[in-house]
User: Which sequence fits this backbone?
């Protein structure tokens, strides 16, 4: 069961680069990879194959150039997969089919930032009220413009 | 036979915080459960973007009413990393002391809640009474029972005087004496075991798939403990064991938590014995240089995660909080399906939920 | 005139009311002390009842108003009737041959009323609690019957007063039939729905069970029913197994009875403190796998003893 520590970082690096990911400047304490969203599932599969299956959370945030999603994995150290979604196409494939843990984090990203999660049905609100009418709360246009 | 729907919550005697669980029940067996959270959503992540770093320390302290110290510690560690502040070792030790005391009182609180759910009011009373010893210690140290306001960016605002140390030592001795009772109860009471053994079993595989953390995961054999794997504060100087169990049932979780209390006490004694001399605080700048950082610590309920991004001003551009209860909550439907309705209370209480944490 | 005094004042209505409040207080106080708490003052049960009588009585939509009013009245009436036949020390308001059977029958009426209250309530807490109380009834009632009739079989006397006087000569039944006594105590705990058999009103599972939708006066009547049931149950055990007022008579006998009853309450409180609630299936298994065989064994032993 001690597999969280046994993750071999070099092997993971090779596998992720093969999936079209690139080492990038990310948050401190994390090894960060940028990748196009088409490759997300493939990259997540590669991580699971390398025994890094602990997805801590998905951080979504509005940046000037779009919405950034960070998938924070943990395998003895933090490994982050980062996507940048353009504002005119906020959608991302769902990870829930390959890792159950992504389910609620995707729901949160969906309601807080209005990102469409492809590959799963209608998403019920997680934290917001059922009759929430306003824009996604963390997608504040004026503030970030 | 069509399944009956039994709503539990948002208000229910079993729940200490609002949470809605819709059970579908056939006869006495639970077929499935629908969860709805968000009743105590306060928009803290959004709010944090409009507050200064100094204000935010107090804001994140109020994410949770039990593990408040874990939240302030994580947030301050993040900001200090961004600002490149070197925190004095004495301050790190005091933070660690509060974190471990908090773990002890959180685990005891849980034991009380579980006992009440299975109708064992005596243990509930004893657990919460003895938890008061720890709360009194915290009050003596910081002036607050659960919200300590002790941590600040750059150190801590309290210092341990010799009087404090003596007070802590005496009261811990008393506490350790009381702890024996709970150990006996969990290990030997057949009545308690009849209600908790083989209940809400979570296999190691499911733990991985659901991303469970903390004592709940460790009771199923997972070894994830951030204190060991990515030591923060001064945990690498501490001698303690990561407690794991194999059963993955509610009883095993109780056993794991009690053993963790022992380990925490060990750490507390090491902290008091080896408390370094020196300052407890350094001056922190109001503005934090641009950058982003993630921090993980081991809160009482497991891995607590903070992401902080600074744009160079005195307010953070984004604060993301992931509390350990969120994956635990998501695992509830799996835990509940197949159990008897009489056991629902024990399963829910045994999951160690902190709804305010999950809702933020 | 004396009969009226017996029925209305002592050992009848007024005494039962006062004593049941006192027993309830003693029970709560002891549990509190065992749990390291302070506990309520002695007038607390009375204050609770008065408060409930003064509170608004709400009949919820969909509930049968007449039935929900009749059930607590019938329950409390049957307990009070039973109380007349159960001796307090050496006194009973009334007695006749075979009143033991009648008392046992009267004491099971509140359980059925309790079940009906839950079953007819438009709430699943009530339905679930009512269901459980009936299941529990089947598990404890047989052992309780077996336990309480064993001394009657031994002495061939089916009147409770007769049992008391028989014990005054032949020694207390508890010494002859300890197993029967234990079975009766456990059965009584089941009847009173106390920990560990507080399954029908398990707070964390079914709220207040059948009483969830009750309020005001009717709830007060239910509470009184339970308090009196406790007193009558304790009195019954003291009379059948502990010899009533023996070895004394008169006032000293009353004191002896009081001491025995207090000891019984202490025992009940200790059980309440020491156990967690069991599940209904565990309760049924315990009742039928252990209690009933134990009760039957006691009875067979009694028959064998009677032969000698």
Assistant:
């Amino acid at each position: 069961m001690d597999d969280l520590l046994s993750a071999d970082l070099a092997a993971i690096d090779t596998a992720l680069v093969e999936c079209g990911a690139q080492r990038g400047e990310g948050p401190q304490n994390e090894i960060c990879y940028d990748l196009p969203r088409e490759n997300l599932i493939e990259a997540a599969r590669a991580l699971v194959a390398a025994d890094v299956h602990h997805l801590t959370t998905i951080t979504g945030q509005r940046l000037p150039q779009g919405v950034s999603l960070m998938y924070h994995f943990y395998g003895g150290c933090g490994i982050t997969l980062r996507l940048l979604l353009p504002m005119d196409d906020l959608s991302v494939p769902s990870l829930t089919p390959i890792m159950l843990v992504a389910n609620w984090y995707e729901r949160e990203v969906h309601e807080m930032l209005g990102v469409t999660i492809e590959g799963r049905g209608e998403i019920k609100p997680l934290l917001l009220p059922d009759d929430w009418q306003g824009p996604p709360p963390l997608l504040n246009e004026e503030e970030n413009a | 036979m069509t399944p009956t729907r039994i709503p539990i919550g948002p208000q229910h005697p079993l729940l200490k915080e609002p949470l809605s669980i819709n059970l579908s029940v056939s006869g006495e067996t639970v077929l499935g459960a629908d969860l709805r959270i968000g009743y105590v959503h306060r928009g803290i992540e959004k709010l944090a973007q409009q507050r200064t770093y100094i204000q935010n320390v107090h804001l994140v302290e109020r994410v949770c009413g039990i593990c408040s110290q874990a939240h302030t510690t994580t947030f301050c560690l993040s900001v200090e990393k961004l600002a490149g502040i070197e925190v004095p070792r004495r301050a790190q030790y005091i933070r660690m002391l509060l974190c471990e005391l908090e773990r002890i009182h959180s685990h005891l609180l849980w034991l009380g809640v579980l006992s009440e759910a299975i109708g064992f009011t005596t243990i509930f009373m004893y657990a919460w009474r003895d938890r008061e010893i720890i709360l009194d210690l915290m009050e003596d140290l910081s002036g607050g029972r659960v919200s300590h306001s002790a941590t600040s960016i750059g150190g801590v605002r309290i210092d341990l005087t010799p009087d404090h140390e003596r007070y802590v030592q005496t009261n811990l001795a008393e506490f350790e004496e009381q702890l024996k009772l709970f150990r006996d109860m969990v290990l030997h009471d057949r009545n308690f075991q009849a209600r908790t053994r083989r209940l809400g079993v979570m296999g190691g595989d499911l733990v991985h798939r659901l991303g469970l953390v903390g004592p709940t995961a460790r009771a199923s054999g997972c070894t994830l403990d951030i204190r060991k794997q990515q030591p923060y504060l001064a945990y690498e100087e501490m001698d303690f064991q990561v407690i794991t169990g194999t059963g993955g049932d509610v009883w095993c979780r109780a056993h794991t938590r009690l053993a963790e209390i022992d380990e925490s006490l060990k750490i507390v004694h090491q902290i008091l014995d080896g408390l370094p001399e020196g300052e407890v605080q350094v001056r922190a700048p109001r503005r934090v240089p641009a950058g982003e950082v993630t921090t993980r610590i081991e809160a009482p309920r497991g891995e607590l995660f903070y992401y902080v991004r600074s744009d160079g001003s005195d307010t953070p551009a984004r604060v993301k909080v992931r509390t350990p209860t969120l994956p635990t909550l998501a695992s509830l439907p799996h835990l509940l399906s197949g159990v008897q309705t009489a056991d629902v209370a024990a399963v829910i209480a045994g999951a160690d939920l902190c709804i305010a944490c999950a809702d933020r | 005139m004396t009969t009226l005094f017996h029925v209305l004042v002592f050992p009848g209505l007024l005494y039962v009311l006062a004593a049941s409040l006192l027993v309830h207080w003693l029970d709560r106080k002891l549990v509190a002390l065992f749990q390291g708490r302070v506990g309520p003052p002695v007038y607390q049960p009375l204050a609770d009842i008065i408060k409930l009588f003064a509170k608004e009585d709400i009949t919820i939509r969909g509930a049968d108003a007449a039935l929900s009013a009749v059930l607590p009245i019938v329950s409390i009436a049957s307990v009070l009737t039973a109380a007349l036949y159960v001796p307090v020390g050496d006194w009973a308001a009334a007695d006749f041959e075979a009143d033991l059977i009648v008392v046992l029958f009267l004491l099971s009426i509140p359980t059925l009323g309790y079940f009906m209250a839950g079953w007819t309530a438009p709430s699943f807490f009530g339905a679930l609690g009512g269901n459980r109380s009936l299941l529990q009834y089947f598990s404890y009632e047989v052992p309780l019957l077996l336990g309480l009739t064993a001394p009657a079989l031994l002495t061939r006397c089916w009147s409770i007063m007769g049992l008391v006087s028989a014990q005054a000569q032949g020694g207390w039944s508890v010494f002859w039939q300890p197993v029967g006594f234990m079975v009766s105590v456990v059965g009584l705990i089941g009847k009173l729905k106390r920990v560990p058999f507080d399954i029908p009103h398990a707070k964390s599972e079914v709220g207040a069970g059948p009483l969830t939708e009750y309020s005001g006066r009717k709830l007060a009547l239910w509470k009184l029913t339970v308090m009196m049931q406790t007193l009558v149950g304790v009195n019954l055990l003291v009379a059948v197994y502990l010899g009533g007022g023996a070895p004394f008579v008169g006032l000293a006998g009353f004191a002896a009875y009081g001491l025995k009853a207090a000891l019984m309450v202490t025992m009940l409180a200790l059980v309440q403190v020491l156990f967690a609630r069991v599940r209904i299936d565990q309760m049924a298994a315990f009742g039928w796998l252990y209690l009933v065989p134990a009760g039957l064994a006691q009875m067979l032993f009694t028959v064998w003893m009677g032969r000698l």
Notes: Chain B touches chain A at residues 37-38, 41, 43, 45-46, 49, 81-82, 204, 208-211, 213, 221-224, 229-230, 244, 291-296, 303, 305, 307, 309, 317-318, 320, 322, 326-327, 329-330, 359-360 (CB under 8 Å). The mean pLDDT of chain B is 87. Chain B has 14 helices and eight strands.
